[in-house]
Design brief:
eleven-stranded mixed beta sheet; five-stranded mixed beta sheet; Fumarylacetoacetate hydrolase, domain 2; globular; 18 strands; alpha+beta; 35% strand
Length: 290
């Protein structure tokens, strides 16, 4: 079961049928036992042949008034990458400590108006020399602190800035269009298993620059552990999104460039595609169609 947010309303997909919901996004996703609520709604809905076309023509990021947060150093590969980038500044030990600590690293990522969706542009910073995407299984957590759904997240990161000084993390992670989620909110009938695969491809001028995959079973921490820490001292009246960390890290000699295409896929959810641009600069559509 999937929810798509479009300019014309919410599209509910159940298997190969599509239904238009004339409801508010924030209210729908915060129903207790969201899957049961949507199943009940199906009894009163008629499959809409045009609803599928709306997904193609008017798709938005699956977010309303939710904040986006992120967890760091939840995979061993992420810890190693952070240590490599912070070696020159003397901060490498920080990442060993947070990987082994009881308390996870959690940080604010984005307000909803800065979040991009499928087939929309994400930004890299002009003042960074080393920029990468970070593909992450992303949780939607409702107002009661329950994981109600899952989506794909891209935690765009400026590794040169974070590596210079760990205190620069907000500048490395939080800027205009530095986060994307999509293409939908997936509401499965069971928690995704450890074999659930995450993959990422980066294409530049038609050439494949990066292609790798991993599974969420390689995470050191559980989803609920991260949720409990996030919600322990916060109230989220609309719920929240939480990116859960990445294990897919391009080689240290790779940095994103203008018009690169980033494609992230997660089993059960689908694929999210973003094009890379700078703030205030439009992508060159003639070079590569997204």
């Amino acid at each position: 079961m999937k929810l798509f947010k479009t300019t014309k309303g919410i599209i509910l997909q159940m298997q190969e049928k599509f239904y238009l919901l004339n409801e508010d996004w924030d209210q729908v996703v915060n129903h207790e036992d969201l899957r049961s609520y949507l199943n009940t709604q199906l009894n009163n809905l008629i499959s809409d042949a045009d609803a599928r076309n709306l997904i193609e023509s008017s798709l938005l990021a699956p977010i309303g008034n939710q904040e986006v947060w992120a967890a760091g150093v939840t995979y061993l590969r992420s810890r190693d990458a952070r240590k490599e980038e912070a070696a020159a500044s003397g901060g490498a030990d920080l990442y060993d400590k947070v990987y082994e600590a009881d308390r996870p690293e959690l940080f604010f990522k984005s307000l909803p108006h800065r979040v991009q969706g499928h087939n929309q542009d994400v930004h890299i910073r002009r003042d960074s020399t080393w920029n990468v995407p970070e593909p992450e299984c992303t949780l939607f957590i409702n107002t009661s602190g329950e994981i109600a759904g899952y989506t794909i997240g891209n935690d765009m990161s400026s590794r040169s800035i974070e590596g210079e000084n760990a205190l620069y993390l907000p500048q490395a992670k939080v800027y205009e269009k530095s986060a994307s989620i999509g293409p939908c909110l997936w509401i499965p009938d069971a928690v995704p298993g450890p074999e659930t695969e995450i993959s990422m491809r980066i294409v530049r001028d038609g050439k494949l620059m990066y292609d790798d995959k991993t599974s969420i079973g390689r995470m050191k921490r559980s989803f609920m552990e991260l949720v409990e820490y996030l919600y322990s001292e916060f109230d989220f009246p609309y719920g929240a999104y939480l990116m859960t960390g990445t294990c897919l890290v391009p080689a240290n000699d790779f940095t994103l460039a203008q018009n690169d295409i980033v494609e992230i896929s997660i089993d059960g959810i689908g694929m999210m595609r973003n094009r890379v641009t700078f703030k205030g600069q439009q992508a060159e559509g003639s070079r590569q169609q997204i």
